[in-house]
Write a structure and sequence with these properties.
Growth Hormone, Chain: A, mainly alpha, two-stranded antiparallel sheet, single chain, disordered N terminus
């Protein structure tokens, strides 16, 4: 049941015959990356404010319950991402990549901007909570269709031997979007002050999405359809039912399932541990001031972001699997020591509010950066890996589903699951003061699962031709 090139045969047209010129490649990568960056910015605004939003949209009286409710709403957007992958992947394989991710972009931008117009719980009670959840669901639906379209669009323009390198630029957009969201929020809070930010200033980063949406749509409207899909369309070989072909064909379905458990599940938890859970942990468990936590994470992001491209390019030489699995192995082995060290270098006395004099900044930044190096290792090659598994006629649908199950469910619910485990009576009674680390058992367990499945069922994909078709 090993996945290898014996299940793939070449088609009449090699992707290298349709490779775009260098100038067009730059435009393609810029258009896809910029639009995806803005979508991640929109989606991560809420994640960056998850701790803060507990008091705005949820009943007061229990800080832990507010935080969990806020994280659950954040997770709700991830919960519907696989549905967005099914809906928009199907459309993308039917009508094309370009127009589908224009739809997803518009949906994301409008939903995000509308969050900036919402009434709070104090004004509208549970209706405000319901509206917020509804908009998060729309965001998740849109994001479920965006990533697969952007990654497929870029991959179908580039040379086979440089696919890891070129698609890795798409991978940087998630981190850059997260970084941009933190930068905008931090600047707004500092400029307006805490009182004004809590009153109305929190709306400004969301309303900014209107401007970002206009720029993104303008740029993407100027782009043409991918050459592989255009040729597929002109030859009359498009799939008539991408959903059926993706999930009722046993060979393709097996690839989808193995891609989920052998790659994207582990990649998802490593990513969300390094970027989201770390930020939540700094504020909720270590009691570090939000501004200090944001600065720490931002510095680590700046240091590590170029490594997405480094590992993407390296995967063209040594393979996708080796790099991704090394990231999962290192994460599983070192997460608990890293988080124990974070406590030692920030709030060793367990104070209700961390004393700034106790924080060893170089050590904290280094520990956060190590986690983000793992993120770059698992995430840099993943787009190339996924597009290499599936044929053009069903690629958008087939690659989007395992990606968004892995990232949306395994990764997206990680902050909620890890925080809930940490706050549980079981953790406190079993581990005492060490209970703050129990949430890490979840990402470690998923990483171990991914390592096992990958070692048993996945072989290297870097030499696959993306215009190849699965044998039926």
């Amino acid at each position: 049941m090993n996945m290898d090139t014996r299940g793939v045969t070449g088609s009449a047209v090699a992707s290298s015959d349709l490779v775009a010129s260098p100038a067009l490649l730059r435009k393609v990568i810029f258009a896809a990356s910029l639009g995806t960056l803005f979508e991640w910015y929109d989606f991560y605004l809420y994640g960056s404010l998850a701790v803060f939003f507990g008091g705005l949209f949820f009943p007061k009286g229990n800080d832990t319950a507010q935080l969990l409710a806020s994280l659950a709403t954040f997770g709700a957007g991830f919960g519907v991402r696989p549905l967005g992958a099914l809906v928009f992947g199907h459309i993308g394989d039917l009508i094309g990549r370009k127009y589908t991710f224009l739809i997803t972009m518009a949906t994301m931008g409008i939903a995000t901007a509308m969050v900036g117009l919402l009434p709070t719980y104090d004004s509208f009670g549970l209706l405000a909570t319901g509206l917020l959840v509804g908009l998060r669901l729309l965001q998740g639906l849109a994001l479920g269709g965006e990533y697969g379209g952007a990654a497929t669009y870029v991959a179908e323009h580039v040379p086979d031997k440089q696919r890891g390198y070129y698609t890795s630029f798409i991978q940087t957009t998630a981190t850059l979007g997260f970084f941009l969201s933190m930068g905008v929020i931090g600047t707004t809070r500092i400029t307006l002050g805490e009182a004004a930010f809590k009153s109305y200033g929190w709306r400004i980063p969301f309303l900014l999405s209107f401007a970002l949406l206009a720029v993104s749509v303008y740029i993407r409207l100027k782009m043409k359809e991918s050459p592989l899909f255009a040729k597929l369309k002109s030859s009359g070989e498009r799939s008539k039912n991408p959903l059926k072909e993706s999930f009722t064909n046993p060979v393709n379905l097996r690839y989808v399932i193995i891609a989920l458990f052998g790659a994207t599940a582990g990649q998802g938890v490593v990513w969300y541990t390094g970027q989201f859970y770390a930020l939540t942990f700094l504020q909720s468990a270590l009691k570090i001031k939000w501004s200090q936590a944001y600065i720490m994470v931002s510095i680590a992001l700046l240091i590590s972001t170029p490594l997405f491209v480094v590992f993407g390019k390296l995967s063209d030489r040594i393979g996708r699997k080796k790099i991704m699995m090394t990231g999962c192995i290192l994460a599983a082995l070192t997460y608990i020591p890293i988080y124990m060290a974070m406590k030692m270098f920030s709030n060793p006395r367990g104070l209700p509010v961390a004393d700034p004099n106790d924080i060893v900044w170089p050590a904290m930044v280094a520990l956060l950066t190590i986690q983000m190096v793992y993120v770059c290792m698992v995430y840099g090659p993943i787009a190339a890996f996924l597009v290499e598994l599936f044929p053009t006629r069903i690629r958008y649908t087939s690659m989007s589903v395992p990606y968004h199950f892995g990232n949306g469910w395994f990764g997206g619910f990680l902050p909620l699951i890890a925080t809930a485990v940490t706050a549980s009576a079981w953790a406190k009674s079993t581990f005492g003061s060490g209970s703050i680390y129990t949430g890490l058992l979840y990402p470690i367990g998923v990483c171990v699962l991914t390592i096992i499945v990958s070692s048993l069922f996945i072989r290297e994909t870097k030499d696959h031709k993306i215009e190849a078709v699965l044998q039926r």
